[in-house]
């Protein structure tokens, strides 16, 4: 008991007299003790609900430290595969007027919501993919893809500029969001926020290790406050993703001294609207030439008659 008191753990051993295993509910047959931790304030409710059979045992899966596990899985199952040669694969993209920013931009939303696409109102326009095939876990030539976008934003001096970059949300955060929204894990909002913090802390530490030199300089983690927060003393207002990403990549490029290489001023010739206008002009010219050709052919037939 002294040792358990020092550890902050209370062990409850159920003692049953003249009870056969078959007399117990199925959920109880493989349970030989309960553990209560000091930081588990919800233990009594869980135990009472379980005894009353109000909820199935599957809903009481221990979900603490989930963020730590997600971080390790995210690294070994994804980042350790796509980051080492990311800059080289990005440089191989052809047909672009600007080189692709050689870092994978990973957005960490506070709400853990990860949309399927980047918001178009924030001036992200898809232009291609950085692809990599690798056989893994009996899946031959598994394809790993990072979406590349043309991104327009206002620089510090107020000038409209654009760049090409691969950007995505951190997928494990979507798992935390689903654990909060779903009925299986029953992750509370406070637990989700806490596990997100653990995820960010651990993945930052992993990528910052000296032995991870193959990943150094090939990623950029970006915190994104995508919802209002008035619940803490450090409250904040929702930010626009374009402003957050613009500030992050401009700061990073300035420190690295590569701002002029990956960012250019937007002119009438390089804007998306100008590109659309050029395409319309080309198609109009094609139609006019086609009509002239048809009229000439028809005129020739009329002359022969």
Structural class label: alpha/beta
Q: How many β strands by DSSP?
A: 8
Main beta sheet strand tally, sense and closure: 6 strands, mixed
Low-confidence segments, ≥5 residues, pLDDT <50? 272-279
SSE string, helices as H and strands as E: HEEHHHEEEEHHEHHEH
The pLDDT mean sits at: 79
Instruction: Calculate Rg over CA atoms.
Output: 29 Å
Number of helices: 9
The helicity comes to 40-55%
Amino-to-carboxy terminus distance: 114 Å
Strand content: 15-25%
Offer a few descriptive terms.
9 helices, two-stranded antiparallel sheet, 8 strands, elongated, alpha/beta, 305 residues, single chain, 6-stranded mixed beta sheet
Commentary on this structure:
With 305 residues, this protein is α/β, with parallel strands linked by helices. It has helices spanning 2-7, 43-52, 66-82, 86-91, 171-181, 189-207, 241-256, 259-262, 272-304; strands at residues 9-12, 34-37, 100-109, 124-136, 139-154, 160-169, 219-224, 264-265. Strands 3, 4, 5, 6, 7 and 8 form a six-stranded mixed sheet that branches. A two-stranded antiparallel sheet has the order 1-2. Helix 3 (66-82) packs antiparallel against helix 5 and helix 5 (171-181) packs antiparallel against helix 6 (189-207). The model is unreliable at 272-279 (pLDDT under 50).
């Amino acid at each position: 008991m002294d040792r358990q008191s020092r550890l902050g753990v209370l062990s409850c051993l159920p003692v049953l007299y003249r009870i056969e295993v078959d007399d117990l509910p199925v959920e109880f047959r493989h349970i030989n003790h309960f553990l209560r931790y000091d930081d588990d304030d919800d233990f009594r409710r869980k135990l009472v609900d379980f005894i009353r059979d109000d909820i199935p045992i599957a809903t009481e899966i221990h979900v603490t430290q989930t963020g730590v596990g997600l971080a390790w899985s995210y690294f070994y199952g994804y980042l350790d595969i796509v980051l080492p040669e990311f800059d080289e694969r990005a440089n191989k993209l052809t047909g672009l007027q600007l080189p692709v920013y050689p870092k994978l931009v990973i957005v960490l939303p506070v709400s853990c919501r990860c949309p399927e696409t980047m918001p178009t109102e924030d001036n992200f326009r898809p232009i291609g993919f950085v692809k990599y095939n690798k056989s893994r876990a009996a899946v031959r030539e598994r394809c790993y893809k990072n979406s590349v976008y043309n991104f327009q934003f206002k620089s510090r001096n107020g000038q409209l500029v654009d760049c090409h970059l691969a950007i995505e949300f951190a997928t494990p955060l979507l798992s935390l969001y689903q654990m909060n929204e779903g009925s299986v894990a029953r992750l509370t909002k406070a637990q989700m926020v806490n596990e997100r913090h653990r995820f960010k802390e651990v993945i930052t530490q992993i990528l910052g290790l000296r032995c991870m030199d193959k990943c150094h300089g090939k990623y950029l983690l970006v915190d994104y406050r995508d919802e209002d927060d008035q619940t803490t003393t450090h409250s904040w207002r929702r930010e626009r993703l374009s402003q957050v990403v613009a500030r992050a990549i401009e700061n990073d490029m300035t420190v690295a001294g590569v701002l002029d290489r990956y960012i250019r001023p937007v002119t009438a010739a390089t804007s998306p609207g100008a590109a659309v206008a050029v395409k319309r002009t080309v198609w109009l010219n094609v139609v006019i030439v086609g009509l002239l050709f048809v009229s000439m052919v028809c005129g020739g037939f009329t002359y022969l008659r």
